[in-house]
Amino acid sequence: MTSSPTADSLAATAASIARRAGRVLLEARAQAERDGVTGRDLKDLGDARAQAAIAGWLAAEAPGDAVLSEEAKDSPERLAADRVWIIDPLDGTREYSEGRDDWAVHVAVWERGDLVAGAVAIPGKDLVLDSATVVGASGAIADPPRMAVSRSRPPALVEHLRATLGLEVAPMGSAGVKIAAVVRGQVDAYVHAGGQYEWDSAAPVAVARAAGLHTSRIDGTPLTYNRPDPYLPDLVVCRPELAAQILATIAEAPSFGDNP
């Protein structure tokens, strides 16, 4: 009987797939630039190329496992599966289409109720973080603490946190890049309440948990995955020392929720 893969081996596979997908995306963008493909067409091209590549690799390397991907039709069969790969083939299409490097590839593994592995590739920086090998941030929290925020549409809650706690904000691209910045110690927190789906956070949350960071919904409840409705609109990822203060400040906010 074939033994089930370990969390570490799943993380290694996730990292390999994320890295390879990153190469596909870099090559696709370079070719698009030569061909004059820009804007929405470039976003769609990147999504399609990465999705096709990842789907093919998973079919060969994880046959029989279910998949939840932003760029593929969902199936209720995943709800009864023992293992589900949660994929965002290109997180940060805007940044990708603008020639920036703050976009990512997310590959996570959910197994029997919880995330067990994940990897985030940031191809523009030749970086892959995975849950088996990640090393958590060390050293003192910045003074004032730094919080990653959306460069294009930060939710109203972010301004409340900044003003109340005196945080310094650091605008950057995709959710994966923001959470990776917390993992790497470049910032101390990332708070989002503007609407996301499971594929936006599953892989970076798996890595963040492995790095010893706090991860939760903005009301402090756990982030759960592989649910019938994959809409998962908010999260907090931060250094553990800041979690209680951030959550208390959110709870005291006049209002929060999905903001454009």
UniProtKB/TrEMBL annotation:
Residues binding Mg(2+) 1, per UniProt: E70, D88, D91, D200
Coiled-coil regions listed in the entry: none
The keyword Protease is assigned to this record: no
Binding-site residues, Mg(2+) 2: L90
Reaction equation(s) it catalyzes: adenosine 3',5'-bisphosphate + H2O = AMP + phosphate
Gene3D superfamilies on file: 3.40.190.80, Fructose-1,6-Bisphosphatase, subunit A, domain 1
GO biological process, one term: 3'-phosphoadenosine 5'-phosphosulfate metabolic process
InterPro entries recorded: CysQ/Inositol_MonoPase, Inositol_monoP_metal-BS, Inositol_monophosphatase-like
An MF annotation (GO) of this entry: metal ion binding
Keyword annotations from UniProtKB, A to Z: Hydrolase, Magnesium, Metal-binding
Cofactors that this protein relies on: Mg(2+)
Pfam family, one: Inositol_P
The protein's name: 3'(2'),5-bisphosphonucleoside 3'(2')-phosphohydrolase
Organism: Demequina capsici
